[in-house]
Amino acid sequence: MILIGMFDSPFVRRVAVSMNLLGMPFEHRNWSVGPDFELIRQFNPLGRVPTLVQPDGEALIESGAILDYLDDCAGPERALLPVTGRDRRQALRLMAITIGAAEKGVAQLYETVFRPAAKRHLPWTERCSTQMHAALTELERACEARAGHWLIGQRMTQADITATCVCTFLNDALAITRTATYPALAALVERCEALPEFRASKAEWFPPGDGT
Q1: What domains sit in the chain, N to C, each tagged with a CATH number?
Q2: How many CB atoms lie within 10 A of CB 82?
């Protein structure tokens, strides 16, 4: 399989980490949605990442759909998202909150990178920041309630993977002070980032520029 996208994207990275944890080998194409837009569009008409290309050429798009496919391949005993019941609902809720934080972080980033200073709308970026921190606060509460355990059940799930990839991205991109503001969440992230499956897909983050 071929995974398209840069690892500084939390959406690409959560797919890579999941494949590493499930023991699914893949070829990585470190393509950017900026300069490599047309290359990506050969496999994904939207030119977005992540895109996962199967050996037969079928391309899967959108990280949530890709993760669902990987779990289906792994089977219910190894799936990274609980298959059914309360654990599944809790995991999906935490993942939705986490993805919301990532999206609001990206919105703030793009507002400052791509929009001229004179045209930036401060109330909009402040609203995005408020939403992002509200999501992180909710994740902090979830981590505190678990007292050093995984977010769901007795083993790592996609909730832990997604929270780690997103929080690392937000810290790299927006200098969120994880340890001081969200200590329980920071402890989870540190625990995960120490694992080889996470280290294998950790990339230095570079601020996007025009066309990147």
Answers
A1: 2-79 (3.40.30.10), 85-198 (1.20.1050.10)
A2: 21
**pLDDT tens-digit profile of 66-75?**
999 999 999 9
Q: For residue range 37-54, list pLDDT tens digits in order.
A: 999 999 999 999 999 999
Q: Please compute the mean of the pLDDT values over residues 178-207 and round it to a whole number.
A: 90
Distances (CA, A) of 122 to 90, 127, 141, 175, 209: 34, 8, 28, 18, 20
Give the C-alpha separation, 3 to 99, whole Å.
Answer: 20
**Structure-block tokens of residue 54:** 């199967």
Measured between alpha carbons, how far is 32 from 195 in angstroms, rounded to an integer? 26
What is 45-72 written as a DSSP string?
TT--S-EEE-TTS-EEESHHHHHHHHHH
State how far the alpha carbon of 56 is from the alpha carbons of 52, 53, 60, 104, in Å.
11, 8, 12, 36
- In Å, how far are 107, 123, 202, 208 from 194, measured between CA atoms? 29, 37, 11, 27
